[in-house]
């Protein structure tokens, strides 16, 4: 038992740090004791109800609390002190322990911080000194993965300014978190299904400063770049090829009146050797105009 009668394994499950970790002690600085006792009693009652319904010891997912009634530091450590080298897989010894602090979702009405002892190993087989990383926080981050998931779930429905106030972090930290996850998701982007592309341009500030937006046949944005000249199509072709797309089958259709390149589509160049002509709507002429294939 650690907090208000909640078992250790239930609190570990609430934090989402896995069964390989155990809680050594908890330090709480309470502002409003009555509010904390009320929240803990509610969590304990829900935990007992779930434990009665199933054998799995778990309680509900933590939700961000706008009101903070105290600060809580949860000190955790690894339950097993036998480690394998992540480089070669041999048994490794602990060289030193490093204490790290990770911001977590507010729990029990308190600003929660997880303090973990992370080992740095010494492997005599491969002569390396690897640093272990906890599975519940990405390398180099000062917050847990559950903290990121909760923040992203709120960003979908509100602004970054509101989310940073809820979690009491800076907007720079939140934007870095978003940039990292977006770059990570783009590495798994598969554009092999793209056979039709919509192109649109938009000024991003006053003056002749434009960005070009590319959308697939479903209307999803797949690429954005600066400018609106032929270099944008070249950059898009490189992006498409790097994400399993087929550039050799795509052709660009330009308006016969204003010569603007408005559409891209797919053509079988072996069966159709003549240039494609389609009657499409031109957003610049604001009417349906004949569009011809261009280089």
Would you give an account of this structure?
- By secondary structure, the protein is of the alpha+beta class.
- Helices cover 26% and strands 32% of the residues.
- The strands form two sheets. Strands 8-7-6-10-9-12-11 form a seven-stranded antiparallel beta sheet, covered by helices on one side. Strands 1-2-5-4-3 form a five-stranded mixed beta sheet, covered by helices on one side.
- A hairpin with a 5-residue loop joins strand 7 (209-215) and strand 8.
- Mean pLDDT is 78; it is low at 55-66.
Q: N-to-C SSE series?
A: HEHEEEEHHHEEEHEEEE
The profile of the biggest β sheet is: 7 strands, antiparallel
Helix content: 25-40%
Low-pLDDT stretches are 55-66
Mean residue pLDDT: 78
Broad shape: elongated
Radius of gyration: 28 Å
Measured by DSSP, the beta-strand proportion falls in: 25-35%
Annotation, overall tally of beta strands: 12
Q: How many angstroms separate the termini?
A: 72 Å
Q: What is the strand arrangement across the widest sheet? A: 8-7-6-10-9-12-11
- Our count of helices gives 6
Given helix and strand content, the structural type is: alpha+beta
């Amino acid at each position: 038992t650690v907090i208000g009668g909640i078992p250790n394994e239930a609190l570990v499950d609430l934090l989402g740090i896995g069964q390989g970790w155990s809680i050594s002690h908890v330090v709480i600085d309470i502002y409003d004791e009555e509010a904390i006792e009320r929240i803990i009693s509610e969590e304990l009652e829900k935990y007992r109800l779930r434990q009665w319904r199933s054998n799995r010891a778990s309680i509900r997912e933590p939700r961000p609390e706008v009101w903070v009634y105290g600060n809580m530091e949860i000190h955790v450590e690894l339950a097993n002190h036998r480690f394998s080298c992540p480089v070669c897989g041999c048994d490794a010894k602990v060289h030193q322990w490093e204490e790290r602090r990770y911001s977590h979702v507010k729990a029990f009405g308190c600003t929660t911080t997880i303090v973990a002892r992370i080992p740095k190993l010494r492997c005599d087989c491969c002569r390396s000194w690897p640093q272990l990383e906890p599975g519940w926080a990405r390398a180099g981050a000062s917050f847990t993965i559950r903290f990121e998931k909760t923040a992203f779930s709120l960003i979908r429905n509100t602004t970054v300014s509101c989310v940073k106030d809820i979690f009491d972090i800076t907007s720079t930290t939140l934007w870095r978190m978003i940039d990292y996850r977006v770059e990570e998701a783009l590495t798994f982007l598969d554009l092999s299904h793209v056979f039709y592309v919509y192109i649109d341009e938009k000024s991003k500030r006053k003056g002749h400063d434009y960005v070009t937006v590319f959308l697939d046949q479903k209307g999803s944005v797949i690429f954005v770049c600066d400018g609106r000249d032929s270099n944008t199509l070249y950059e898009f072709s490189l992006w498409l090829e790097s994400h399993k797309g087929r550039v050799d089958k795509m052709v660009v259709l330009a308006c016969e009146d204003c010569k603007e390149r408005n559409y891209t589509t797919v053509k079988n160049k072996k069966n159709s050797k003549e240039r494609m002509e389609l009657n499409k709507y031109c957003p610049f002429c604001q009417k349906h105009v004949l569009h011809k294939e261009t280089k």
